Amino acid sequence: MKMIFVLQVVWATISYDSNTFTKFAYQYSGGSRCNPPAQKQETVYFSDVFARPPKILINTILMDTNHPFVNYTFSITTVTTQSFTFNLECFLGTIFGPVYGIVLKWLAIDDERIQIINEFNMYSFENKTYPLVNSNAETVFISLINFSYQGPVYFDILASELTKTSVSVTITDPNNTLSNLLFLGYQVILGVKEAITIIDVIKTTAIYTSPKYVTQENSWLITPFVGFYYNVNDNVRLNFTQYQDQQKIWYTIESIYGFQYYTPQTHQPTWIMYQFKTVFTAVDCITIRITQIKEKLAEFRNSFEVEIMETQQIVRNLGTTNLAIDKNYQLINLKVYARCFQLKKIQSYFNKCYGCLPQKTNQFSHNCYGAINTINYSVKLLPTIQANQELIIILSNLDCQIYQKLFNQVVTQVKLIEIKQVDI
């Protein structure tokens, strides 16, 4: 008798990771300073494998740069499921000095409820507006990573406006010193409501010890810079040190090695979650009313049209239309117009509800008899969670498809409605 053994290998993946990177700082074993001209590149490996390339958040926790002038750039490249790359380039000039040290706390998150916008190596210091991927991003903060200078600089970076479609970032210039900036690097981090909790915005002009904060479940405490008030009298020499016991966490900011000069700055202690409780679910289709009529102007209309009653939007154009319907609407009323032709029938599909297994759909078929040239569908959709509802409407001459886009750990699309012409 032969025995056959089947070995099944299951690969486990991680959804978050974090560590501290010190190789760009001479103050640490294995680290070195960046003497211009120089290019430094280091690959950082995760503790395990992600299912998808994660988003990388950077929190600068040590900065030691030359005075009164320094010129360098920083970036992240080549993010994979196993690693990513830090790049540092220091430029030579008659006056530019070295980067003695930059230490980075990095956080990796594989979750679509977080969005990270990278603005590396900005050299035109203007206010910017960035598009949102997820209309349910309700909280935002900035992480200032690095800056190069050729004189005194006084500035803050603010997330000045957040809408369902975009976020605006403002760089303040109270003393007209932005002309002394050479390069600036920052990230814009957005998340759903539970993802980000901003504790405070703190300006320090001397050694600072934070209050002791109660540890938050499934969250990191980070302390990103958001502004500097630097007079170039000495090096930028700032170092964050974090402490923790079983219940609380706190930190200090001080000048490296106890140097007398302290660089005034603003930072923003913030909790960021890496495991979420909120799950975004699709709307339920609670009412469908179907009417067959003869419409006098049917020949002048497209094969399919969609009207959203709450927003008074009408979608007629062929192709794909994306809509975000405000979370304050407790019901969403849709009307779908379908032209009906002889020797054709209209088949329709409606996603009944999110959790009603096994019968999750309603399906109908209507023939186009006699003078009937139009079938109207009136649909009531009930949100299952208070959130902006992102709809994708796809129209062609032969069908109408309506999907809902959901952002959880991964992005999914749930088909809500499909109406199509088919031959009898």
Keywords:
carbohydrate binding; 7-stranded antiparallel beta sheet; H-type lectin domain-containing protein; 6-stranded antiparallel beta sheet; mainly beta; 54% strand; 424 residues; H-type_lectin_domain; single chain
Fold and architecture overview:
It is a single chain. The protein is mainly β and 424 residues long. The chain folds into 2 domains: 16-273, no CATH class; 284-423, no CATH class. It is built from no helices and 33 strands. The strands form 7 sheets. Strands 1, 3, 6, 15, 16, 19 and 20 form a 7-stranded antiparallel beta sheet that branches. Strands 8-11-10-18-21-14 form a 6-stranded antiparallel beta sheet, with no helix packed on it. The chain starts with 15 loop residues before the first strand and ends with a strand. Mean pLDDT is 93; it is low at 6-10.
Quick gist of this model?
The chain has 424 residues and is an all-beta fold. It contains no helices and 33 strands.
The mean pLDDT is 93
Q: Span between N and C termini? A: 58 Å
Q: SS-based structural class?
A: mainly beta
What's the number of structural domains?
2
Q: Approximately what portion of the residues adopt beta-strand conformation?
A: over 45%
Unreliably modeled segments: 6-10
Largest sheet: 7 strands, antiparallel
Computed CA radius of gyration, to the nearest angstrom: 28 Å
Count of helix runs = 0
Pfam families: H_lectin (PF09458)
Protein name: H-type lectin domain-containing protein
Domain H-type lectin: 42-109
GO biological process, one term: cell adhesion
